[in-house]
Structures are given as C-alpha cells and as structure tokens.
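Below is a filled-in request sheet from our internal design queue. Each sheet records the structural input a requester submitted and the sequence that came back. We keep these sheets so that new team members can see what a complete request looks like end to end.

REQUESTER: design group, bay 2
PRIORITY: normal
MODE: inverse folding
CHAIN LENGTH: 214
BACKBONE (tokenized):
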C-alpha cells in the first residue's frame, strides 16, 4: 500500500512512510481508518469526503523496514518539504491515491506543518490536510433553455394595467373624471381614449360601457 500525490503532468510523489492513521472528514461526522493494523480498506461511495488528514515523517536515511520505494529513489526530508510547499501553492487539483483501496480523489493541499525533534537529526515530521475538489456545476434556472426552461413558471407581468370604469346611469365624462381621476377637466382625456366606442358626441356615453381612464 502506498500514499501518492499526482499532478496533471505525470509527476508522482510517494510519501516514504505510511501513516498509522488517516482521518476522513465527511459531511456527517468523522471516520478514522487505521492503516497498519487493518491493511486494505474501502470508503463507501455514498458520502462525499470533505477532508483527508494524516501525520507521518520524512526520514533522513532510507530504511527498507518502513520506507516505500527503492533506496535509489529515496527523497531527502528538505526536498520533500519543498515539494509539499510547491503543492500548497498549486492552483489546479492533484490526484490523491491510496493504492489497494478505493481512495482515488482530486484534492488540494490545504495545509501542512513540519516538526523537528531532538535526537532524530535530519528527520522531519509533518501533518498534512488535503481538501477534496469537485467540479462546480451551475444549475439551470427557470429562465434557461432546455428541459428546465420547458417547465418554467410564467413570469409575473410587471406592467401596470390600464385603469377602467363601467358607465352607470346618470354619468357624464366630467363626473367620471372628477370621481376617478380627481379632476373634472380630464374628461377630454377619457374621451380621446374611448372616442372610437363613444362616437362623435362625448355626451353620448351609455350605461354598461367600459371606459379606459388611463
């Protein structure tokens, strides 16, 4: 089992020493998987992983008892830390893989910390947090074309509707103008809007006629 980070250019970074624990932060709580005690493990696909964090160290000297890869490929601690700093600055996601498991997800290096311990000259201990990445998808709104647009609700009509009035017995245009528009002199305005229906005589309005006032 190996812990790997890959970039889009084919570069693969192998963590030389497997961590004893990996913490998987999900939307619904935390799950801890112990790697060395249980060997292979799979993560359910139902819940999307949010963060992956673990701790390990970069040894100064290669030791086949716990180091991954070949001795000739052993990476020095300072070089390894520089590589993590480089990953931290990446603007594109990396691929994080734990071989022999189902973990194979795009991530960003969210943070990492280094620790130097007395008595272990040259070794560098670290904590690292990876945050999973997913492509942003924009949902179609009601106004979009396609299936979503076909089921859209009709947009509310924001236009102001014309004011109307039903003529009653004894009404005149000046009376209507006074009551509905607040100014009897606006009878001519009403007449112009309804001249086709009223005819040539503005006094010839009839009960039941629907007049447009504005």
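RETURNED SEQUENCE:
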């Amino acid at each position: 089992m190996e812990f790997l980070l890959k970039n889009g250019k084919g570069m693969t970074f192998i963590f030389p020493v497997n961590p004893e624990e990996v913490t998987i932060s999900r939307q619904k709580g935390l799950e801890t998987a112990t790697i060395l005690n249980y060997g292979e493990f799979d993560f359910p696909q139902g819940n999307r992983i949010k963060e992956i964090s673990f701790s390990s160290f970069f040894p100064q000297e290669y030791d086949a008892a716990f180091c991954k890869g070949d001795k000739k490929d052993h990476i020095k601690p300072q070089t390894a830390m520089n590589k993590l700093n480089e990953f931290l600055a990446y603007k594109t996601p990396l691929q994080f893989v734990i071989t022999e498991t189902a973990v194979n997800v795009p991530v960003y290096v969210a943070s990492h910390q280094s620790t130097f311990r007395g008595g272990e000259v040259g070794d560098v201990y670290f904590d690292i947090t990876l945050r999973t990445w997913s492509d942003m998808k924009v949902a179609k709104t009601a106004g979009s074309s396609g299936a979503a647009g076909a089921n859209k609700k009709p947009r509310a009509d924001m236009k102001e509707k014309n004011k109307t009035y039903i003529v009653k017995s004894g009404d005149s245009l000046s009376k209507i103008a006074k009551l509905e528009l607040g100014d009897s002199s606006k009878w001519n305005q009403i007449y112009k809007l309804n001249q086709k229906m009223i005819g040539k005589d503005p006094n010839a309005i009839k009960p039941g006629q629907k007049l447009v006032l504005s």
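SHEET NOTES:
- The beta strands are 3-6, 12-14, 21-26, 29-34, 49-58, 94-98, 104-115, 124-132, 164-166, 210-212.
- The domain at 164-212 is CATH 3.10.350 (Membrane-bound Lytic Murein Transglycosylase D; Chain A).
FILED BY: M.R.
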